[in-house]
């Protein structure tokens, strides 16, 4: 399933929910008014859209995440690599490193990730 790519304002809204969940929908309206200058109707319109995209849920006037922030970011990254590099992480890294030199610290971090993955397999 493809993850929905949020607009910048939807992302700020999502960040607000992730930072405060579980949050009552009335409290969310207040936070959106304070942080974004949104009216109640705008908050509920955006919330409804993101609930339909199965990122959040609003049950009994309490908003919670269906996908936590790290899960959303992971799915978005996987989708990007799938769509742009045929799902090949090595092709992505090669393209990335062609234009950007990795520091020794970054190389070590990547080696550590690979080594820990190999140990688990």
Automatic annotation (TrEMBL):
SUPFAM superfamilies: Winged helix' DNA-binding domain. GO terms for molecular function: DNA binding. Gene3D superfamilies: Penicillinase repressor domain, Winged helix-like DNA-binding domain superfamily/Winged helix DNA-binding domain. The keyword ATP-binding does not apply. InterPro entries: BlaI_family, WH-like_DNA-bd_sf, WH_DNA-bd_sf. One of its GO terms (biological process) is negative regulation of DNA-templated transcription. Keywords: DNA-binding, Transcription, Transcription regulation. It comes from the Bacteria. Belongs to the BlaI transcriptional regulatory family. This is BlaI/MecI/CopY family transcriptional regulator. It comes from Velocimicrobium porci.
């Amino acid at each position: 399933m493809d993850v929905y790519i949020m607009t910048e304002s939807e992302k700020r809204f999502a960040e607000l929910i992730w930072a405060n969940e579980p949050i009552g929908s009335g409290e969310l309206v207040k936070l959106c008014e304070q942080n974004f200058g949104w009216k109640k109707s705008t908050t509920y319109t955006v919330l409804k859209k993101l609930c339909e995209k199965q990122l959040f849920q609003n049950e009994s006037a309490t908003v919670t995440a269906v996908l936590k922030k790290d899960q959303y970011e992971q799915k978005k990254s996987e989708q990007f690599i799938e769509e742009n590099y045929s799902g090949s992480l090595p092709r992505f890294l090669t393209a990335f490193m062609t234009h950007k030199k990795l520091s020794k610290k970054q190389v070590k971090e990547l080696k550590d990730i690979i080594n820990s993955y190999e140990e688990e397999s």
